[in-house]
Here is the input.
Amino acid sequence: MAVRKADGSQEKISFSRSELKAARTIFPGLLGVMNLSKPQEIKTSIPLPPGQEPILTAHANVPRYRRALYFLESARGFRDLGMKIAMYCSLFETLFSTDAAEITHKIAHRIAVFLEQEPQKRCELYARIKKAYGIRSKVVHGDEVKMEAKMIQAISVDVDEIARRIFRKIGSSKELFDQFQATKGELDEYFLRESFGGAPAEFPTEQN
Here is the structure.
């Protein structure tokens, strides 16, 4: 089948028997923890024929992972490399953001902590995500991206792989999947604990 790849190209892809077997070991666990009975999209009240109604994926009733998958689908459908990277960054924000403060730093830090254990690898991943956000910022604001096309292409491929790792880890257990469906406050607490090596949630305050 013909697919749009992370580097912006499109080609017919064939899968080997071993690759299909590997997929069979991944998808049951990944999909098994997802409650697909929840709303996947919210239709508006604009009178149009069935299937043509506008939708609002950003509605509060749409689960966080469904919104993330929407951005993943959009990213992989774009031919424009800048827009692909922008959609991947929106995917990251859907899963890891809880407020608008220091968004680039916070998302890059949380993903690095989530995916890597070694300090050096966390620093490297943090820098890679920050670089992707630099492109995203220019793209969504209509600015020029003064970077070689091959480098932008490499960043697009990189963030696609990061997204794969994120989804595979979130889908590795029901407990972890539920954590990413929790409230923003609970998600904040989770990343605070992870940043301090799994320390207790009760941190001292100034009043203490």
